[in-house]
Write the structure tokens for this entry.
Amino acid sequence: MVEGRNVLSDESTWVERARQGDEVAFAAIYDRYQRPIYGLVYRLMGNPDDAFDITQDVFVKAYKGLGKISPEAELNLSAWLHRIASNACMDVLRRRKIVRWLPWDPTEHANITPANDSDEPEQNLLSHETREQVQAVLNNMSEKYRLCLVLREYQEMSCEEIAVVMNVSRAAVKSLLFRAREQFREIYIEMERLGSFSATSAGTGKRGRGKRGGPK
């Protein structure tokens, strides 16, 4: 840990000092946001190797982009970094022409309360559905709806923050979330009707994971 990082409490100050070449200031930005950015990238990419590499690239791009950061982005550094990360992931996934999603772990997020009480499947996905079921549903959703749900439910972002990350209006975010939840529900019900969840669980239950880790 570099001495003096804990003194930096105002993000605008961090950005201004980092823009002037202050390595302590940028190290403070990295320390604060490396873990959540890694978490987002890991969930979008589905493996720790990609997550590690892309996270490093995100902060390289952020450092190079500080000179061009807008006043609005400077006031919402978290959303700006998440936008860089999500764009980087989408670029890689489109080049590969695949979309892979890390299954959501309901036990990991047991303390997260949904936006409103509901018995609908998409409102209870963090606490009631198995990781395999959620992954199977997400794999059948459109890319933009998946991203919107991850930012909202996993990254716990507000509509305003998601709007910045996805470069859309706040009203568009609300519409995307509504449509994403509708799509989640429809796919869930159809897969349940077809008995797809049993096949998914049987097919994914023994998959291993890489051991190259992210932030400790």
Notes: The first helix runs from residue 11 to 19.
